[in-house]
């Protein structure tokens, strides 16, 4: 359908051609002499209106009620100019075949259904306008991501999903253990099948990896190893966090894009993050027009203007210290009190970008070292690190990044101060022993980018199958 309707003349130049459309029935409207069937194949938001009279081959299926919302059909007909005002062209049906009829219990009938309800039907929700549009825009953002980095000479690196190290040191990892295969106990209880010592603790020496292993929280440390060999690299893959936060911005499984730049400092990092965000936003505005118009009308009024401004304007830059001063001057009260040294909460981040800077993205830099991860480069003041967060309206923190500490003694001291085991970072420390270079990178949460670009307010609707506390269905 996108192929037919997506052209500059909305399909008019193809009037007279015989075409085949395959898709799912959205609505059926039977009048005395003709039946209108709206079909969607997911290639675009638009349906193809199929007009069928009683002469057409397969009309008996209309009469017998076989064609209903949700059914899959194959239709052949001639493209004609439409009499209706909603579309330029429609298909005059010669032949229609019901490929798969739809049970009347199909839960997504035409009436508008809530997004909460649709989360319980994650296997069927891509059949709706909203989730079809989100899926296409998500796809376009992924494509534009690779395109941006490839055009700028970055090499895509696959970082591992199973790892022994905790990049962020926040203790939010999911542990991976082995179930002893073919054990009878496994049939009764998966937990019973985990190898255990005599006193009932997990026996890691008998476990698959011989020691505790986890799902990765970030591919950064692995990315650094490749950046210190291939120069500019990026990862793009799933990451996992056992954060017990039921918010509209957190998932237990989310995708992250993590570029790592060699011979680069924090300014290079911020410039890269800005250019990247502007590039992908420009891409969806240009290539996802129909879906973006839909979001603009139904999901967030004015989103197109908001995104256009992002592409055209410079982003604001503030130090953390300036951000704290700004928050202290704010006329309104925050739930979490503000003072130098505190972590910025979502309400603070949103105030800064939405109210203080009127919707413009803001990059906050030079955070207190106490609230940031061990690998960030210490600034000369001894109190702050060369970290940066990019804050955007509605979402808050979209990007977190930093210049990395390239000096061996500084990283070792920081690991000791944070009581992290130097031995388990031996390979990371090696990078500082063998030809260390200044380098920097950032991580962008892909689902937060989808939220930002579509206006969808809950992150659970920005990923096909959300994983959140208490929920791993589908
Ligand atoms: O700020 P974070 O924790 O930074 C890192 O992981 C660094 N290692 C990245 C780097 O420098 N290479 O996470 C980066 C981004 C956040 O800004 C946010 O957009 C997203 O990842 N994010 C989440 N998105 C969804 N659900 C969660 N639970 C998220 N946690 C972080
Ligand atoms: Mg962060």
TrEMBL record:
It is an enzyme of class 6 (ligase). It catalyses: tRNA(Asn) + L-asparagine + ATP = L-asparaginyl-tRNA(Asn) + AMP + diphosphate + H(+). One of its GO terms (biological process) is asparaginyl-tRNA aminoacylation. GO terms for molecular function: asparagine-tRNA ligase activity; ATP binding. Its EC number is 6.1.1.22. Keywords: Aminoacyl-tRNA synthetase, ATP-binding, Ligase, Nucleotide-binding, Protein biosynthesis. Residues 136-464 form the Aminoacyl-transfer RNA synthetases class-II family profile domain. It comes from the Eukaryota. The keyword Glycoprotein does not apply. One of its GO terms (cellular component) is mitochondrion. Belongs to the class-II aminoacyl-tRNA synthetase family. This is asparagine--tRNA ligase. It comes from Rubroshorea leprosula. The chain holds residues 97 to 570 of 570 of the full protein.
